[in-house]
Amino acid sequence: MILTRKTIELTQHLIKRNYGISAVLLSKASDPIQQLFVDKVREYGLKSKGQLFVDATPSIEKEYKDEISKAERHYGGGKGVDMKKFPDFKFSQPKIEIN
Prior knowledge:
Layout: H1 2-26, H2 32-48, H3 58-74
Protein backbone atom coordinates (compact mmCIF):
# COMPACT_ATOMS: atom_id res chain seq x y z
CA MET A 1 0.00 0.00 0.00
CA ILE A 2 2.80 2.42 0.86
CA LEU A 3 4.62 1.69 -2.37
CA THR A 4 1.46 2.29 -4.35
CA ARG A 5 0.76 5.61 -2.61
CA LYS A 6 4.33 6.80 -3.27
CA THR A 7 4.05 5.73 -6.89
CA ILE A 8 0.78 7.60 -7.33
CA GLU A 9 2.18 10.76 -5.70
CA LEU A 10 5.29 10.62 -7.88
CA THR A 11 3.22 10.07 -11.01
CA GLN A 12 0.95 13.01 -10.17
CA HIS A 13 3.98 15.22 -9.55
CA LEU A 14 5.57 14.25 -12.87
CA ILE A 15 2.34 14.84 -14.79
CA LYS A 16 1.93 18.32 -13.28
CA ARG A 17 5.54 19.23 -13.99
CA ASN A 18 5.52 17.93 -17.56
CA TYR A 19 2.20 19.63 -18.29
CA GLY A 20 3.60 22.94 -17.04
CA ILE A 21 6.71 22.61 -19.16
CA SER A 22 4.85 21.57 -22.31
CA ALA A 23 2.38 24.44 -21.92
CA VAL A 24 5.25 26.93 -22.07
CA LEU A 25 6.85 25.22 -25.05
CA LEU A 26 3.64 24.99 -27.06
CA SER A 27 2.52 28.55 -26.46
CA LYS A 28 3.12 31.22 -29.05
CA ALA A 29 5.37 34.14 -28.26
CA SER A 30 2.99 36.88 -27.17
CA ASP A 31 5.70 39.31 -26.15
CA PRO A 32 6.96 41.32 -29.17
CA ILE A 33 10.54 41.34 -27.85
CA GLN A 34 10.45 37.58 -27.38
CA GLN A 35 9.08 37.16 -30.91
CA LEU A 36 11.81 39.45 -32.30
CA PHE A 37 14.44 37.35 -30.53
CA VAL A 38 13.01 34.13 -31.99
CA ASP A 39 12.93 35.68 -35.47
CA LYS A 40 16.55 36.83 -35.20
CA VAL A 41 17.71 33.40 -34.02
CA ARG A 42 15.96 31.77 -36.99
CA GLU A 43 17.40 34.36 -39.39
CA TYR A 44 20.91 33.75 -38.02
CA GLY A 45 20.41 30.01 -38.45
CA LEU A 46 19.52 30.48 -42.12
CA LYS A 47 22.45 32.84 -42.76
CA SER A 48 25.04 30.69 -41.03
CA LYS A 49 24.46 27.54 -43.08
CA GLY A 50 27.48 26.86 -45.25
CA GLN A 51 29.33 30.06 -44.42
CA LEU A 52 32.46 30.65 -42.42
CA PHE A 53 31.31 34.02 -41.07
CA VAL A 54 27.88 35.61 -40.91
CA ASP A 55 27.65 39.11 -42.40
CA ALA A 56 31.42 39.39 -42.78
CA THR A 57 32.91 42.34 -44.59
CA PRO A 58 35.63 41.80 -47.21
CA SER A 59 38.22 43.26 -44.83
CA ILE A 60 37.36 40.67 -42.15
CA GLU A 61 37.60 37.83 -44.68
CA LYS A 62 40.96 39.18 -45.95
CA GLU A 63 42.29 39.46 -42.40
CA TYR A 64 41.19 35.87 -41.71
CA LYS A 65 42.93 34.58 -44.85
CA ASP A 66 46.09 36.51 -43.96
CA GLU A 67 46.17 34.99 -40.46
CA ILE A 68 45.62 31.48 -41.84
CA SER A 69 48.42 31.89 -44.39
CA LYS A 70 50.73 33.27 -41.67
CA ALA A 71 50.01 30.22 -39.49
CA GLU A 72 50.62 27.90 -42.45
CA ARG A 73 53.99 29.50 -43.16
CA HIS A 74 54.95 29.41 -39.49
CA TYR A 75 54.03 25.76 -38.96
CA GLY A 76 55.21 24.29 -42.26
CA GLY A 77 52.07 24.41 -44.32
CA GLY A 78 51.67 25.67 -47.83
CA LYS A 79 50.10 24.75 -51.12
CA GLY A 80 49.25 21.07 -51.31
CA VAL A 81 50.00 20.40 -47.63
CA ASP A 82 47.10 19.10 -45.55
CA MET A 83 47.42 20.87 -42.18
CA LYS A 84 44.59 18.81 -40.69
CA LYS A 85 46.42 15.52 -41.19
CA PHE A 86 48.47 14.16 -38.32
CA PRO A 87 52.18 14.19 -39.23
CA ASP A 88 53.94 10.94 -40.10
CA PHE A 89 56.97 10.23 -37.98
CA LYS A 90 59.62 7.89 -39.34
CA PHE A 91 62.38 6.80 -37.04
CA SER A 92 65.29 4.86 -38.45
CA GLN A 93 67.62 2.66 -36.46
CA PRO A 94 71.03 4.27 -36.05
CA LYS A 95 74.01 2.28 -37.20
CA ILE A 96 76.04 1.21 -34.21
CA GLU A 97 79.64 0.20 -34.63
CA ILE A 98 81.03 -2.22 -32.10
CA ASN A 99 84.81 -2.04 -31.64
